[in-house]
Design brief:
Pathway: Amino-acid degradation; L-kynurenine degradation; L-alanine and anthranilate from L-kynurenine: step 1/1; Cofactor biosynthesis; NAD(+) biosynthesis; quinolinate from L-kynurenine: step 2/3. This protein is an alpha/beta fold and 424 residues long. The chain has 14 helices and 13 strands. The mean pLDDT is 97. The structure holds pyridoxal-5'-phosphate (PLP) and (2S)-2-amino-4-(2-amino-3-hydroxyphenyl)-4-oxobutanoic acid.
Protein backbone atom coordinates (compact mmCIF):
# COMPACT_ATOMS: atom_id res chain seq x y z
CA UNK A 1 0.00 0.00 0.00
CA UNK A 2 1.36 3.41 -0.93
CA UNK A 3 0.06 6.91 -0.71
CA UNK A 4 1.96 10.11 -1.47
CA UNK A 5 0.58 12.23 1.36
CA UNK A 6 2.59 13.50 4.30
CA UNK A 7 0.07 11.86 6.66
CA UNK A 8 1.02 8.50 5.21
CA UNK A 9 4.71 9.18 5.97
CA UNK A 10 3.81 10.04 9.55
CA UNK A 11 1.75 6.86 9.84
CA UNK A 12 4.76 4.83 8.66
CA UNK A 13 6.89 6.53 11.32
CA UNK A 14 4.33 5.75 14.02
CA UNK A 15 4.57 2.07 13.09
CA UNK A 16 8.37 2.02 13.04
CA UNK A 17 9.82 -0.11 15.86
CA UNK A 18 13.23 1.57 15.44
CA UNK A 19 11.95 5.16 15.59
CA UNK A 20 13.37 5.74 19.09
CA UNK A 21 16.98 5.52 17.87
CA UNK A 22 16.60 8.74 15.90
CA UNK A 23 16.59 10.76 19.15
CA UNK A 24 20.03 9.48 19.98
CA UNK A 25 21.62 11.23 17.00
CA UNK A 26 22.74 14.79 16.49
CA UNK A 27 20.38 15.89 13.74
CA UNK A 28 20.41 19.52 12.71
CA UNK A 29 17.01 21.22 12.76
CA UNK A 30 15.51 21.40 9.27
CA UNK A 31 18.28 19.34 7.75
CA UNK A 32 17.67 15.93 6.20
CA UNK A 33 20.80 13.82 6.16
CA UNK A 34 20.94 11.25 3.37
CA UNK A 35 24.70 10.74 3.23
CA UNK A 36 25.08 8.03 5.88
CA UNK A 37 26.73 5.80 3.28
CA UNK A 38 29.65 8.23 3.07
CA UNK A 39 29.82 9.52 6.63
CA UNK A 40 27.28 8.46 9.23
CA UNK A 41 26.12 10.92 11.89
CA UNK A 42 27.28 11.25 15.47
CA UNK A 43 25.16 9.64 18.16
CA UNK A 44 25.18 10.58 21.83
CA UNK A 45 26.39 7.09 22.66
CA UNK A 46 29.36 7.33 20.29
CA UNK A 47 30.18 10.75 21.72
CA UNK A 48 29.99 9.31 25.23
CA UNK A 49 32.31 6.38 24.52
CA UNK A 50 34.80 8.72 22.85
CA UNK A 51 34.60 10.93 25.97
CA UNK A 52 35.22 7.94 28.21
CA UNK A 53 38.37 7.03 26.32
CA UNK A 54 39.63 10.61 26.43
CA UNK A 55 38.90 10.68 30.17
CA UNK A 56 40.87 7.48 30.65
CA UNK A 57 43.85 9.04 28.89
CA UNK A 58 43.40 12.15 31.04
CA UNK A 59 43.44 10.33 34.37
CA UNK A 60 45.35 7.13 33.71
CA UNK A 61 47.98 7.95 31.11
CA UNK A 62 49.80 4.77 30.13
CA UNK A 63 47.67 2.62 32.45
CA UNK A 64 44.70 3.23 30.14
CA UNK A 65 46.05 0.33 28.08
CA UNK A 66 45.00 -2.17 30.74
CA UNK A 67 42.67 -0.29 33.09
CA UNK A 68 39.38 1.57 32.99
CA UNK A 69 36.05 0.64 31.43
CA UNK A 70 37.51 0.10 27.96
CA UNK A 71 41.15 -1.01 28.31
CA UNK A 72 42.80 0.03 25.05
CA UNK A 73 44.93 -3.09 24.72
CA UNK A 74 41.84 -5.24 24.16
CA UNK A 75 39.64 -2.70 22.37
CA UNK A 76 40.16 -3.95 18.79
CA UNK A 77 39.16 -7.48 19.79
CA UNK A 78 36.22 -6.25 21.83
CA UNK A 79 34.93 -4.17 18.93
CA UNK A 80 35.51 -7.15 16.64
CA UNK A 81 33.22 -9.21 18.86
CA UNK A 82 30.58 -6.45 18.75
CA UNK A 83 30.82 -6.28 14.95
CA UNK A 84 30.84 -10.06 14.36
CA UNK A 85 27.02 -10.49 14.35
CA UNK A 86 26.78 -7.87 11.59
CA UNK A 87 29.02 -10.05 9.43
CA UNK A 88 27.61 -13.47 10.28
CA UNK A 89 30.93 -14.43 11.83
CA UNK A 90 32.38 -15.59 15.16
CA UNK A 91 34.32 -13.08 17.27
CA UNK A 92 37.81 -14.53 16.65
CA UNK A 93 37.27 -14.08 12.90
CA UNK A 94 36.67 -10.32 13.14
CA UNK A 95 38.98 -7.56 14.24
CA UNK A 96 38.40 -3.82 14.18
CA UNK A 97 41.62 -2.40 12.79
CA UNK A 98 43.10 -0.27 10.04
CA UNK A 99 41.07 1.06 7.13
CA UNK A 100 39.45 -0.59 4.14
CA UNK A 101 42.39 0.05 1.85
CA UNK A 102 45.09 -0.90 4.35
CA UNK A 103 43.19 -4.04 5.34
CA UNK A 104 42.82 -5.02 1.71
CA UNK A 105 46.58 -4.59 1.27
CA UNK A 106 47.14 -6.74 4.33
CA UNK A 107 44.84 -9.55 3.23
CA UNK A 108 46.13 -9.60 -0.34
CA UNK A 109 49.70 -9.58 0.97
CA UNK A 110 48.65 -12.59 3.05
CA UNK A 111 46.35 -14.61 0.81
CA UNK A 112 47.36 -13.78 -2.74
CA UNK A 113 49.82 -16.52 -3.56
CA UNK A 114 50.26 -16.72 -7.31
CA UNK A 115 51.29 -20.20 -8.31
CA UNK A 116 51.44 -22.03 -11.64
CA UNK A 117 48.64 -20.80 -13.89
CA UNK A 118 46.79 -19.17 -11.00
CA UNK A 119 48.36 -15.74 -11.00
CA UNK A 120 45.45 -13.38 -11.57
CA UNK A 121 43.32 -11.24 -9.32
CA UNK A 122 39.73 -10.74 -10.38
CA UNK A 123 37.91 -7.49 -9.60
CA UNK A 124 35.26 -5.60 -11.52
CA UNK A 125 34.94 -2.63 -13.78
CA UNK A 126 32.79 -0.71 -11.29
CA UNK A 127 34.98 -1.28 -8.23
CA UNK A 128 35.85 1.54 -5.86
CA UNK A 129 39.14 2.98 -7.19
CA UNK A 130 41.11 2.46 -3.98
CA UNK A 131 40.53 -1.30 -4.20
CA UNK A 132 41.89 -1.34 -7.73
CA UNK A 133 44.93 0.71 -6.69
CA UNK A 134 45.62 -1.71 -3.84
CA UNK A 135 45.29 -4.76 -6.09
CA UNK A 136 47.55 -3.23 -8.74
CA UNK A 137 50.06 -2.27 -6.05
CA UNK A 138 50.13 -5.81 -4.69
CA UNK A 139 50.65 -7.21 -8.17
CA UNK A 140 53.55 -4.86 -8.83
CA UNK A 141 55.13 -5.81 -5.51
CA UNK A 142 55.25 -9.39 -6.83
CA UNK A 143 56.80 -8.18 -10.07
CA UNK A 144 53.57 -8.79 -12.01
CA UNK A 145 52.04 -6.39 -14.51
CA UNK A 146 48.48 -5.33 -13.59
CA UNK A 147 47.68 -4.95 -17.29
CA UNK A 148 48.00 -8.70 -17.53
CA UNK A 149 47.20 -9.97 -14.05
CA UNK A 150 44.31 -7.75 -12.95
CA UNK A 151 41.07 -8.89 -14.55
CA UNK A 152 37.91 -6.83 -14.33
CA UNK A 153 34.46 -8.26 -14.80
CA UNK A 154 32.75 -5.93 -17.28
CA UNK A 155 29.42 -4.28 -16.56
CA UNK A 156 26.76 -4.70 -19.25
CA UNK A 157 24.95 -1.46 -18.42
CA UNK A 158 27.62 0.67 -16.74
CA UNK A 159 25.77 0.40 -13.41
CA UNK A 160 25.50 -3.17 -12.30
CA UNK A 161 27.22 -6.54 -12.54
CA UNK A 162 25.71 -9.86 -13.53
CA UNK A 163 26.58 -12.71 -11.19
CA UNK A 164 26.77 -14.95 -14.28
CA UNK A 165 29.59 -12.79 -15.66
CA UNK A 166 31.45 -12.94 -12.35
CA UNK A 167 31.19 -16.72 -12.17
CA UNK A 168 32.29 -17.06 -15.79
CA UNK A 169 35.34 -14.90 -15.10
CA UNK A 170 36.52 -17.21 -12.29
CA UNK A 171 38.74 -19.34 -14.44
CA UNK A 172 41.67 -21.56 -13.50
CA UNK A 173 43.94 -18.51 -13.88
CA UNK A 174 42.32 -16.63 -11.00
CA UNK A 175 43.95 -16.90 -7.58
CA UNK A 176 41.82 -14.35 -5.71
CA UNK A 177 38.61 -12.46 -6.47
CA UNK A 178 37.97 -9.13 -4.73
CA UNK A 179 34.38 -8.00 -5.07
CA UNK A 180 32.02 -5.55 -3.39
CA UNK A 181 28.99 -6.73 -1.44
CA UNK A 182 27.14 -3.56 -2.46
CA UNK A 183 28.41 -1.42 -5.34
CA UNK A 184 29.26 2.06 -4.12
CA UNK A 185 27.60 3.91 -6.99
CA UNK A 186 24.54 1.98 -8.09
CA UNK A 187 23.82 0.38 -4.72
CA UNK A 188 23.51 -3.07 -6.30
CA UNK A 189 23.69 -5.90 -3.74
CA UNK A 190 25.52 -8.89 -5.15
CA UNK A 191 24.56 -12.46 -4.32
CA UNK A 192 27.70 -13.06 -2.27
CA UNK A 193 26.52 -16.50 -1.13
CA UNK A 194 26.26 -17.73 -4.68
CA UNK A 195 29.58 -16.19 -5.67
CA UNK A 196 31.32 -17.64 -2.60
CA UNK A 197 30.00 -21.15 -3.29
CA UNK A 198 31.22 -21.04 -6.87
CA UNK A 199 34.57 -19.54 -5.86
CA UNK A 200 35.19 -22.42 -3.45
CA UNK A 201 34.19 -24.97 -6.05
CA UNK A 202 36.66 -23.42 -8.48
CA UNK A 203 39.53 -23.01 -6.04
CA UNK A 204 39.38 -19.19 -6.11
CA UNK A 205 39.80 -17.31 -2.82
CA UNK A 206 37.04 -14.74 -2.33
CA UNK A 207 37.63 -11.41 -0.58
CA UNK A 208 34.72 -8.99 -0.15
CA UNK A 209 34.66 -5.23 0.32
CA UNK A 210 31.67 -4.77 2.60
CA UNK A 211 32.04 -1.00 3.08
CA UNK A 212 28.58 -0.29 1.66
CA UNK A 213 26.75 -3.12 3.34
CA UNK A 214 28.09 -3.32 6.88
CA UNK A 215 25.42 -1.93 9.19
CA UNK A 216 22.83 -1.84 6.41
CA UNK A 217 22.53 -5.41 5.15
CA UNK A 218 23.01 -8.67 7.09
CA UNK A 219 25.87 -10.94 6.04
CA UNK A 220 26.52 -14.65 6.53
CA UNK A 221 30.26 -14.83 5.86
CA UNK A 222 30.74 -18.09 7.76
CA UNK A 223 27.74 -19.79 6.20
CA UNK A 224 28.72 -18.61 2.72
CA UNK A 225 32.33 -19.64 3.24
CA UNK A 226 33.81 -16.25 2.29
CA UNK A 227 37.62 -16.28 2.69
CA UNK A 228 38.20 -12.72 3.85
CA UNK A 229 36.54 -9.31 3.93
CA UNK A 230 37.21 -5.66 4.71
CA UNK A 231 35.00 -2.66 5.55
CA UNK A 232 35.04 0.80 7.05
CA UNK A 233 33.64 2.17 10.30
CA UNK A 234 32.51 5.61 9.19
CA UNK A 235 29.54 4.93 6.90
CA UNK A 236 26.46 3.09 8.22
CA UNK A 237 28.35 2.17 11.41
CA UNK A 238 28.55 5.86 12.40
CA UNK A 239 32.07 5.64 13.85
CA UNK A 240 33.06 9.15 12.71
CA UNK A 241 35.43 10.57 10.08
CA UNK A 242 38.40 8.27 9.66
CA UNK A 243 36.92 5.71 12.07
CA UNK A 244 38.84 2.46 12.31
CA UNK A 245 37.67 -0.18 9.81
CA UNK A 246 37.56 -3.93 10.14
CA UNK A 247 38.54 -7.23 8.62
CA UNK A 248 37.27 -10.79 8.61
CA UNK A 249 39.30 -13.93 8.08
CA UNK A 250 37.50 -17.26 7.85
CA UNK A 251 38.71 -19.57 10.60
CA UNK A 252 39.93 -22.13 8.08
CA UNK A 253 42.72 -19.67 7.30
CA UNK A 254 43.78 -19.11 10.90
CA UNK A 255 47.49 -19.55 11.20
CA UNK A 256 48.31 -18.01 7.79
CA UNK A 257 51.26 -15.71 8.48
CA UNK A 258 50.35 -12.05 7.86
CA UNK A 259 51.94 -10.59 4.75
CA UNK A 260 52.34 -7.27 6.55
CA UNK A 261 53.33 -8.37 10.03
CA UNK A 262 53.55 -6.07 13.03
CA UNK A 263 53.69 -6.41 16.77
CA UNK A 264 49.98 -5.73 17.39
CA UNK A 265 49.31 -8.96 15.48
CA UNK A 266 50.98 -10.83 18.34
CA UNK A 267 49.44 -13.15 20.82
CA UNK A 268 48.53 -10.71 23.58
CA UNK A 269 50.19 -12.68 26.35
CA UNK A 270 53.47 -12.73 24.48
CA UNK A 271 53.53 -9.32 22.80
CA UNK A 272 55.48 -7.67 25.59
CA UNK A 273 58.04 -10.47 25.78
CA UNK A 274 59.69 -8.38 23.06
CA UNK A 275 61.06 -11.43 21.27
CA UNK A 276 62.17 -11.07 17.67
CA UNK A 277 60.39 -14.35 16.91
CA UNK A 278 56.83 -13.30 15.90
CA UNK A 279 54.15 -15.16 17.87
CA UNK A 280 50.91 -14.29 16.04
CA UNK A 281 47.47 -14.16 17.66
CA UNK A 282 45.31 -17.13 16.85
CA UNK A 283 42.50 -15.46 14.89
CA UNK A 284 41.88 -12.35 12.79
CA UNK A 285 43.83 -10.36 15.41
CA UNK A 286 47.02 -11.64 13.77
CA UNK A 287 46.40 -9.27 10.83
CA UNK A 288 46.70 -6.12 12.92
CA UNK A 289 49.89 -4.22 12.29
CA UNK A 290 50.86 -1.43 14.69
CA UNK A 291 49.41 0.42 17.66
CA UNK A 292 45.62 0.74 17.25
CA UNK A 293 44.14 4.18 16.61
CA UNK A 294 42.27 4.23 19.89
CA UNK A 295 40.69 7.68 19.50
CA UNK A 296 39.34 6.72 16.08
CA UNK A 297 37.98 3.44 17.40
CA UNK A 298 36.39 4.86 20.56
CA UNK A 299 33.11 6.11 19.02
CA UNK A 300 32.49 2.62 17.66
CA UNK A 301 31.95 1.31 21.20
CA UNK A 302 28.74 3.32 21.56
CA UNK A 303 27.86 3.11 17.88
CA UNK A 304 28.04 -0.70 17.71
CA UNK A 305 26.06 -1.04 20.91
CA UNK A 306 23.12 0.52 19.06
CA UNK A 307 23.35 -2.08 16.28
CA UNK A 308 23.22 -4.84 18.87
CA UNK A 309 20.06 -3.31 20.33
CA UNK A 310 18.33 -2.54 17.05
CA UNK A 311 19.29 -5.85 15.40
CA UNK A 312 20.59 -5.97 11.84
CA UNK A 313 17.51 -7.89 10.65
CA UNK A 314 15.17 -5.12 11.78
CA UNK A 315 17.50 -2.45 10.39
CA UNK A 316 17.53 -4.13 6.98
CA UNK A 317 13.77 -4.39 7.04
CA UNK A 318 13.40 -0.69 7.73
CA UNK A 319 16.10 0.21 5.21
CA UNK A 320 14.25 -1.70 2.49
CA UNK A 321 10.98 0.00 3.40
CA UNK A 322 12.65 3.42 3.35
CA UNK A 323 14.28 2.92 -0.05
CA UNK A 324 11.09 1.40 -1.51
CA UNK A 325 9.07 4.32 -0.20
CA UNK A 326 11.62 6.78 -1.59
CA UNK A 327 11.54 5.18 -5.05
CA UNK A 328 7.73 5.13 -5.11
CA UNK A 329 7.58 8.80 -4.12
CA UNK A 330 10.20 9.75 -6.70
CA UNK A 331 8.25 7.97 -9.42
CA UNK A 332 5.01 9.53 -8.26
CA UNK A 333 6.23 13.10 -7.75
CA UNK A 334 9.09 13.51 -10.20
CA UNK A 335 7.80 11.75 -13.30
CA UNK A 336 8.81 13.48 -16.54
CA UNK A 337 11.63 15.47 -14.88
CA UNK A 338 14.49 13.48 -16.39
CA UNK A 339 15.25 11.15 -13.47
CA UNK A 340 16.12 7.50 -13.69
CA UNK A 341 16.47 5.09 -10.79
CA UNK A 342 19.84 3.43 -11.37
CA UNK A 343 19.80 0.86 -8.56
CA UNK A 344 18.14 -2.54 -8.98
CA UNK A 345 14.52 -2.54 -7.80
CA UNK A 346 14.38 -6.03 -6.33
CA UNK A 347 14.88 -6.28 -2.57
CA UNK A 348 17.48 -9.02 -2.85
CA UNK A 349 19.50 -6.94 -5.32
CA UNK A 350 19.61 -3.54 -3.65
CA UNK A 351 21.65 -2.25 -0.71
CA UNK A 352 20.93 0.74 1.51
CA UNK A 353 20.85 3.61 -0.94
CA UNK A 354 18.94 4.85 -3.95
CA UNK A 355 21.05 5.86 -6.97
CA UNK A 356 19.07 8.58 -8.69
CA UNK A 357 20.48 9.51 -12.07
CA UNK A 358 20.02 12.84 -13.84
CA UNK A 359 22.10 14.72 -16.40
CA UNK A 360 22.11 17.74 -14.09
CA UNK A 361 23.05 15.67 -11.03
CA UNK A 362 25.94 17.89 -9.76
CA UNK A 363 23.78 21.04 -9.84
CA UNK A 364 20.81 19.22 -8.31
CA UNK A 365 23.01 17.97 -5.46
CA UNK A 366 24.15 21.50 -4.71
CA UNK A 367 20.61 22.83 -4.81
CA UNK A 368 19.53 20.05 -2.45
CA UNK A 369 22.29 20.95 0.02
CA UNK A 370 21.31 24.59 -0.20
CA UNK A 371 17.81 23.51 0.82
CA UNK A 372 19.04 21.39 3.72
CA UNK A 373 18.96 17.95 2.10
CA UNK A 374 22.36 16.22 2.17
CA UNK A 375 22.92 13.68 -0.62
CA UNK A 376 26.17 12.99 -2.39
CA UNK A 377 27.17 13.05 -6.00
CA UNK A 378 29.09 10.34 -7.81
CA UNK A 379 30.34 10.99 -11.32
CA UNK A 380 29.07 11.03 -13.94
CA UNK A 381 25.40 11.53 -13.06
CA UNK A 382 24.41 9.84 -9.80
CA UNK A 383 22.72 11.46 -6.82
CA UNK A 384 23.15 8.99 -3.96
CA UNK A 385 20.37 9.09 -1.39
CA UNK A 386 20.98 6.91 1.65
CA UNK A 387 18.19 6.88 4.24
CA UNK A 388 20.15 5.32 7.12
CA UNK A 389 17.56 3.36 9.12
CA UNK A 390 18.84 4.34 12.58
CA UNK A 391 18.15 8.03 12.14
CA UNK A 392 16.19 8.76 8.94
CA UNK A 393 12.40 8.81 9.15
CA UNK A 394 9.75 8.27 6.49
CA UNK A 395 8.75 11.90 7.03
CA UNK A 396 12.34 12.90 6.17
CA UNK A 397 12.09 11.00 2.90
CA UNK A 398 8.76 12.65 2.11
CA UNK A 399 10.19 16.11 2.84
CA UNK A 400 13.38 15.46 0.83
CA UNK A 401 11.35 14.50 -2.23
CA UNK A 402 9.11 17.55 -1.75
CA UNK A 403 12.17 19.83 -1.71
CA UNK A 404 13.62 18.04 -4.73
CA UNK A 405 10.39 18.58 -6.61
CA UNK A 406 10.51 22.31 -5.84
CA UNK A 407 14.11 22.47 -7.05
CA UNK A 408 13.15 20.77 -10.30
CA UNK A 409 10.02 22.83 -10.85
CA UNK A 410 11.92 26.10 -10.32
CA UNK A 411 15.02 24.75 -12.13
CA UNK A 412 17.13 25.90 -9.19
CA UNK A 413 19.96 23.62 -10.28
CA UNK A 414 20.70 26.06 -13.09
CA UNK A 415 22.28 28.41 -10.53
CA UNK A 416 25.13 25.96 -10.05
CA UNK A 417 27.92 24.63 -12.21
CA UNK A 418 27.18 21.18 -13.47
CA UNK A 419 30.52 20.03 -12.03
CA UNK A 420 31.48 18.14 -8.92
CA UNK A 421 33.13 19.73 -5.85
CA UNK A 422 36.58 18.81 -4.49
CA UNK A 423 35.09 16.09 -2.30
CA UNK A 424 32.49 14.34 -4.49
C1 LIG B 1 33.68 0.36 -1.45
C2 LIG B 1 34.80 1.16 -0.86
N1 LIG B 1 36.03 0.61 -0.79
C3 LIG B 1 37.06 1.30 -0.28
C4 LIG B 1 36.90 2.58 0.19
C5 LIG B 1 38.11 3.27 0.72
O1 LIG B 1 38.08 3.26 2.09
P1 LIG B 1 39.26 3.88 2.98
O2 LIG B 1 39.51 5.24 2.47
O3 LIG B 1 38.66 3.93 4.35
O4 LIG B 1 40.41 2.98 2.88
C6 LIG B 1 35.63 3.19 0.15
C7 LIG B 1 35.36 4.55 0.63
O5 LIG B 1 36.12 5.42 0.79
C8 LIG B 1 34.56 2.45 -0.40
O6 LIG B 1 33.35 2.98 -0.50
N1 LIG C 1 36.24 8.08 2.79
C1 LIG C 1 35.76 9.26 2.36
C2 LIG C 1 36.48 10.44 2.63
O1 LIG C 1 37.64 10.33 3.30
C3 LIG C 1 35.97 11.66 2.19
C4 LIG C 1 34.78 11.70 1.52
C5 LIG C 1 34.06 10.56 1.22
C6 LIG C 1 34.59 9.34 1.63
C7 LIG C 1 33.90 8.10 1.31
O2 LIG C 1 33.92 7.21 2.09
C8 LIG C 1 33.25 7.94 0.01
C9 LIG C 1 32.70 6.59 -0.15
N2 LIG C 1 33.69 5.55 0.01
C10 LIG C 1 31.98 6.34 -1.45
O3 LIG C 1 31.21 5.43 -1.49
O4 LIG C 1 32.14 7.04 -2.41
Amino acid sequence: MFDATQEFAHALDRDDPLARFREEFYLQPGRIYLDGNSLGLLSRRAERSLGEIVESWKIRGIDGWTEGGHPWFYLSERLGALAAPLLGAEPPEVIVTGSTTVNLHQLLATFYRPAGRRTKILADELAFPSDIYAIAGQLRLRGLDPAEHLLRVPSRDGRTLEEEDILAAMTGEVAVAVLPTVLYRSGQLLDAGRIAAEARRKGVLLGLDASHSVGAVPHAFDEWGVDFAVWCGYKYLNGGPGAVGGLYVNRRHFGALPGLAGWFGSDKERQFDMEHEFAPAEGAGAYQIGTPHILSAAPLIGALEMFAEAGIGRLREKSLRLTEYMMRLIEHELAGMGFRIGNPREEERRGGHVALEHERAPGICRALKERGVVPDFRAPDVIRLAPAPLYVSFADVWEAVRRLKEIMTAREYRRYDNRRGVVA
